[in-house]
Amino acid sequence: MTSTFHLISELHRLRKLAGKRHPMYDQNRFAKYLIGFSLALGAVYLIVFGVLFIGLFREIYPSMEPYHIFNKGMVYLLMADFVMRLSLTKLPVQEIRPFVLLPMGKNRVLRSYLVLTGVNAYNLVWMFMLVPFGFGTLFRYFGFVGVLGFLVGYWLLMLFNNYWYLMCRTLMNQSILYALLPVVVYALLLVGMFVPETNYIGNFCMELGEGFFLWEWPAYLGVMVAIWVMFELCHAVQKRVVYKELSKTEVVKKLKKVAEYKFLDRFGEVGEYMRLEIKLLSRNKVPRTQFFMGLSIMLMFSAALAFTDVYDGAFMRYFVTVYNFSVLGVLVLSQTMSYEGNYLDGLMSRKESILNLLRAKYYVQCVLLLLPLVIMLIPIAKGKLTLLSALACFFLASGFTFWILMQLAVYNKLTLNLNAKVTGKNSGGSFFQSMIIMAGFFAPVIVIRPLIALFSETTAMLVILVIGLGFTLTHPLWMRNIYRRFMRRRYENMEGFRASIVND
């Protein structure tokens, strides 16, 4: 019988071969270089954050060491890691189906895949931030051994988070209601951190982090036991889902009442496409999950901004504000035209239908910006943010950020499944996608930072408001520019959409 180690190695080899044999591999080779560049840029940003946190924590908490503050906010890092995995991590159960007819146990293959995810390079991504932070704060007190213990401990936490995410994501693929599980868990953790005069969670995290760099065995043992428990829970959940998917038969569903959105009739063809866009977001599993994920992120970061002093610094305050207004757009507009690739031939048969579709997508996302605006009223009421700042970031998102993200309408040419489940393949990257998403996320912050440094916050926000309004009011011009560039590439894009449909 093949050893477990050999099986894991073979599965890893087959995954690499599957990527190379994909029909879009050669077509997107240039995009792979761009993705590599964007990943390198992301690593640079993490290194910069690791260095900046040292000075920021010393400025905000001069009576405490930065590593204590970092450990106390351990929950925030785990939350950020969970969110990042939503778009970067693939479920092991997606790759089980090809092995069901082979003479090997499905349970054994699934366990091997779970082990393979544990040694995935993604679990080391945060080291780009942790290494400079650890050497900048711990080295002079605890030496290299202390820094190494700090890094090993946090790697174990990422490993725990890996299996926690896989379990939650697998459950969410079965029912969107399971999206409440991580939301409730993180909400309870935040409550435990901000209950007056207690902060049980924060104190526990600080002691756990201290146990890491002091090499105290209870800290490591506790985390390893937690990893084992979460591994078994994750395995049990995914095993149940795999067998359910394999034994599932086609079920005819009863037609439910259809929402017509009659108020959109007055907007003509654009209104019709807005109606379709709303139905796309509300009826299909992948867009609906993205929506609720974005909403959860907004609630968590708004609560952290309103009820804690973690983001009281000007840069971090506006970073979180910009992120809250941009997150839904990044999740949805980054896939512009990819979902429409399922029926693009029909769209192309109507004059200027693509232009009206792009307008509809933009208008729907602008309306959805009212959600973070309402949520941000909480930190505004608490005095952590001004109404001018919220409005400035609102229009910066509707103008500048959306302008960047909608450029992907020109370059996306990979059709995505609207209701991908266990066997879905929605994890592929499209042309220029990673670079433009990075630009959409970081460019607004890069614009804000020098303005805050050079001017007062009020003046800086007025400038941001003018920039945002400028891009928002001129959207008919740049929207038509995107449309013309799309039409010049339409045959290349349509070929890519058709190829990805056939091989999905």
Please outline what is shown here.
By secondary structure, the protein is mainly α. It is built from 23 helices and no strands.
What is the distance, rounded to the nearest whole angstrom, between the alpha carbons of the first and last residues? 33 Å
Query: What is the CA-based Rg, rounded?
Result: 24 Å
Instruction: Tell how many strands the DSSP assignment holds.
Output: 0
Q: What is the 3D form?
A: globular
Average pLDDT works out at: 77
| Low-pLDDT segments, ≥5 res | 23-27, 249-253, 421-431
Percentage of residues assigned to helices = over 70%
Please tell me the total number of domains.
Answer: 2
Main sheet overview: none
Sheet-strand content, in percent, reads under 5%
SSE sequence, one letter per element: HHHHHHHHHHHHHHHHHHHHHHH
Total of DSSP H or I helical runs spanning 4+ residues: 23
Structural class designation: mainly alpha
